[in-house]
Specification:
It is a single chain. The chain is an alpha+beta fold. It has 9 helices and 8 strands. The strands form 3 sheets. The chain has a 4-stranded antiparallel sheet, sandwiched between helices. The chain has a two-stranded parallel sheet with strand order 1-2. It has a two-stranded antiparallel ribbon with strand order 3-4. Helix 2 crosses helix 8 and helix 6 crosses helix 7. The longest helix has 31 residues. It is globular. About 4% of the residues have low confidence.
């Protein structure tokens, strides 16, 4: 049965009003989100690696505004005392963030104190938006080792830059696999590379290529510890890093060698950058 012309007009008007209300609500939500300040996840994660290793209270460049928003949210949720809301993502803030992650039911590497996509988005609900998101990606098998896709892609690019292949001695997510690694391989983003058959110049070239694409990388010798010659590389800002690997990244930014003695960096000098910064260059 056909509607009368009058009824049809009325129905159309009701439908238009209904759709307009939905559209208006969506627009309002979008406007509210755009009105919130943003936390640059790249900068916050970088600060969470570097600041705990600093000998002073110097702030990580570009991170203060976002770190303050994170700290204010942690304060409001009673995970951080107000006196630590200072834009410095030091050990106290890392511990507070880890406790916040645990309060969400997260465990293991998901509660390592580094802002992850899930936890940071939940912390920011109604407070801030999250920009420049970093994700390690799912775990994959590569050359007999377990990596995440971010690390895999970084290694592939380092090989392309270098113009040669190399083999892994050890991958990531390997808790207790090698006592000499003191926990650095327990999380993601960390690999050991074989230097078998490489001369000194080639070893240095591999370290340089790894550093160029966003790894904190060093050539390790038997004189430094109970291990054979190898290259140790940590993917900067991988949010699955173990606490030990986080410390190595922080030391790398501070010009150190990533070892327990915190000696000077003995590797080739390159511009320090993350994988994301490398891809934008």
């Amino acid at each position: 049965m056909k509607l009368s012309s009058c009824a049809a007009v009325l129905a159309a008007a009701v439908l238009f009003a209904s759709l307009s209300g939905v559209t208006g609500a969506a627009a309002a939500q979008k406007a509210d989100a755009e009105a919130l300040p943003g936390v640059n996840m790249e900068a916050a994660v970088k600060a969470a690696q570097i600041d705990p290793r600093r000998p002073d209270s110097t702030l990580t460049p570009g991170a203060k505004a976002g770190v303050l928003l994170v700290e204010e949210a942690l304060r409001d949720l009673h995970f951080l005392d107000a006196k630590w809301v200072d834009g410095y993502f030091g050990t106290t803030t890392v511990a507070a963030y880890a406790n916040y992650q645990k309060s969400l039911g997260l465990t293991g590497l998901d509660a390592n104190g580094l802002p992850g996509k899930t936890s940071l988005s939940k912390l920011g609900a109604g407070r801030f938006t999250v920009t420049n998101v970093i994700t390690p990606g799912p775990r994959v098998s590569a050359g007999g080792s377990v990596l995440n896709t971010r690390t895999r892609d970084m290694l592939a690019e380092a090989k392309r830059v270098l113009g040669r292949d190399f083999e892994l001695d050890q991958g990531s997510y390997n808790p207790g696999g090698d006592p000499t690694s003191v926990g650095t391989h327990d999380g993601g983003g960390v690999v050991d590379i074989s230097v078998e058959g490489m001369n000194a110049a080639t070893r240095t070239a591999v370290v340089r290529a790894l550093r160029l694409v966003g790894f904190a990388a060093w050539l390790r010798s038997p004189q430094q510890g109970d291990w054979p010659w190898h290259i140790h590389a940590v993917a900067i800002s991988d949010t699955d890093l173990s606490s030990q690997a986080q410390h190595q990244v922080g030391d790398y930014y501070l010009g150190l060698n990533g070892l327990a003695n915190r000696g000077p960096d003995d590797g080739p000098r390159t511009t320090i950058r993350t994988w994301e910064e490398y891809r934008r260059r």
